[in-house]
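Please, why this fold?
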Amino acid sequence: MRIEQALGLLDQVNLPTNDYAIFGSGPLLVRGVINDVNDLDLLARGAAWETATAAGQTVYLPEHDITVASFFGGLVTVGNSWAIGDVDVDKVIDTAETLEDFPFARLEHVVAYKTLAGRTKDMEHLRCLEAWRNSRSDPDH
C-alpha cells in the first residue's frame, strides 16, 4: 500500500490526532524510505483508543497477547500497546512529528523497535533507512 492509499484509509478512521501516532513502518513510508507497506499500525491512547475500539473490529492477537482495533480488513490496525519491546506509548505519541497532516512516531522509536524485533523485513527497513540518511547527507543530493 502506498502512502496516499494508507493516509486516505486513515483519514476515514477519523481519530483524535493528539492521542495516536503512526508507528511500525508507516514513519518510513511517509518519508520515502520505503515505497509501500502491507498495513498501517497505530499506537493510541485515551479518546483515540476509545474511538478505534468503538468503530473498528476488535481482534485479539494471541501470538502477541494484545487486542487491537482493525479497520478495512486489517489494512489499518490500532493498538494501545506494542507487542514487541518495552514501548512507552505516551512518549511515542507525545513526541510524534506531524507529516502530511498526520502524527508519525519519530524515527528513533522506529529504529529501536525494528532493531529489537530483528525480523528480516525489519533489518531490510533499517538498511533502507541508513541508505536514505546517507543520501540526504550527500552534498550532490
In short: The chain has one domain: 3-128. The helical segments are 3-13, 26-30, 46-55, 89-94, 107-117, 120-137. The chain has six helices and seven strands. The radius of gyration is 15 Å.
